[in-house]
Amino acid sequence: MNVPIRSAGAAVEISQLSKIYETRENDEVVAIEKVDLRFEPGTFVAVVGPSGCGKSTLLSLLAGLTSASTGDIAIDGDIIRKPHSKIGVVFQSDLLLYWRTVLDNVLLPIEIKKLDLAKFRVRAEELLAQVGLEGFGNKYPSELSGGMRQRVAICRALIQEPGLLLMDEPFGALDALTREQMIMDMQAMWVRVQNTVVFITHGIDEAVFLADRVLVMSPRPGRIDLDLKIDMPRPRQWSAIHENKEFHGYVRQIRDIFEARGVLVAH
């Protein structure tokens, strides 16, 4: 029997956020320019945009992995200057440690913070069961498929029950069938967790399917071209939703922005 995960979503406030990189030639590259956003607690936000538009830079700033050139990010009122205890991150690569078992990989953040491993071991096993990996705790990453490893990476991010979960194209390296299953699994997991999620993706269909809100970023310098609320009931079924007129309407709005920008060419 699966035990529901309990986690309160974090409120996120982004104010006049910009990030400028300097090149070796002392030129400036503006990755993100004057972004203002607010994410309500427990909201699933997807961010889409062309390559190089600043999506991953935005996620790195939210994670506290890089510093802003101007502006601030606040998590539940705390200004972010470094990685925060309320934040969990999942990258495109699972980044599992091959010499550690699945269970030990999930418990790595707990070990690093010197928390009670015995107490969190039960939670880790519950998380693995909820993503279909019950009984795999003693396996090693090399014994798992790509999709299974990514499920472990998600469990590792969730073990501390983060109020804000940041995901940078977490399904991008998976084959089509595994990706579809992971999208469905992600929805089911989020419905139980109800934390705040910022999900970076190139997939328009994926963004609309998963999110309460889709942000469309412009080509560099990254700005918010469209802030689209997705008003469709949950749970959503991947196969059935592609026959849904509302779904196609949302996808069309996003594609229209990309076509207007020359990112997609209509034929």
At CATH level 3, the topology of the largest domain is Rossmann fold
Number of strands: 10
Helix run count: 9
Helix content, binned percent: 25-40%
Structural class: alpha/beta
Low-confidence stretches: 1-6
Q: What's the mean pLDDT score? A: 91
- Largest sheet geometry: 6 strands, mixed
What is the CATH C level class of the largest domain, in words? Alpha Beta
Superfamily (CATH H level) name of the largest domain? P-loop containing nucleotide triphosphate hydrolases
Order of helices and strands: EEEHEEEHHHHEHEHEEHH
Count of discrete structural domains:
2
Strand numbers in spatial order across the main sheet: 6-7-8-3-9-10
Give the amount of beta strand, in percent: 15-25%
Distance between the termini: 51 Å
Shape assignment: globular
Q: What's the alpha carbon Rg, rounded to whole Å?
A: 19 Å
Task: Report the CATH architecture of the largest domain.
Answer: 3-Layer(aba) Sandwich
Overview in brief:
This protein has 267 residues and is α/β, with parallel strands linked by helices.
Q: How would you describe what is shown here?
A:
- The chain is an alpha/beta fold.
- The protein folds into 2 domains: 1-86 and 174-267, P-loop containing nucleotide triphosphate hydrolases (Rossmann fold, 3-Layer(aba) Sandwich); 94-161, no CATH class.
- Helices cover 34% and strands 23% of the residues.
- The protein has helices spanning 55-63, 102-106, 108-112, 117-130, 146-158, 176-193, 204-210, 238-241, 245-261, and strands spanning 12-22, 28-39, 44-48, 70-75, 78-79, 87-90, 164-168, 196-200, 213-217, 224-229.
- The chain has a 6-stranded mixed beta sheet with strand order 6-7-8-3-9-10, with helices on both faces.
- Helix 6 links the parallel strand 7 (164-168) and strand 8.
- Helix 7 crosses helix 9 (245-261).
- The model is unreliable at 1-6 (pLDDT under 50).
